[in-house]
Amino acid sequence: MPMVLATPKESRSFVPHEVDLETLQTRLEAALGSYVREVRLIRHNGGIILQGRASSFYGKQLAQTVLMRLCDLPVIANDMEVQ
C-alpha cells in the first residue's frame, strides 16, 4: 500500500521547537514505518540534523520532507545513510 502524506495545508500539527526531540523522533518513525531505522535528531544552531538509516534514497528524502512538515525548525542537514 503506498504511503499518502498530507499536503502542507492539511499538515498543521507542528511540534513546537520547545518539545523534546525524542517525541518528534517517535512521530517521524511512526509516519515512515520501514523506510527508516535508527532515527536520531540533533538540535544544532537553531535547526535539526537528521541522522539514521534509510532503505533507499527515496526514504532519506521522505524522512526530511516529513520532518519539515512536523516541526517548524529548519532541517540543516540530512545525514541519513542509505543502505
Observed structural traits:
83 residues; 3-stranded mixed sheet; alpha+beta; single chain; globular; 3 strands
Please sum up the structure shown.
This protein is of the alpha+beta class and 83 residues long. It contains 2 helices and 3 strands; from the N terminus they run αββαβ.
Structure description:
The chain is α+β, with helices and mostly antiparallel strands. The chain is 31% helix and 30% strand. The protein has one domain (21-82): Histidine-containing Protein, Chain: A. It is globular. The two termini are 22 Å apart.
CATH architecture: 2-Layer Sandwich
Order of helices and strands: HEEHE
Oligomeric state, counting identical vs distinct chains: single chain
Number of domains: 1
**CA distance, first residue to last residue:** 22 Å
Number of strands: 3
Structural class determined from secondary elements? alpha+beta
Round the mean pLDDT to the nearest integer and report it. 83
Ranges where pLDDT stays below 50 over 5 or more residues in a row are 6-12
Helical residue percent band:
25-40%
- The spatial strand order of the largest sheet comes to 1-2-3
Gross geometry: globular
% residues in beta strands: 25-35%
What's the story with the biggest beta sheet?
3 strands, mixed
Q: How many helix segments?
A: 2
- Give the C-alpha Rg: 12 Å
Return the CATH class: Alpha Beta
CATH topology: Histidine-containing Protein, Chain: A
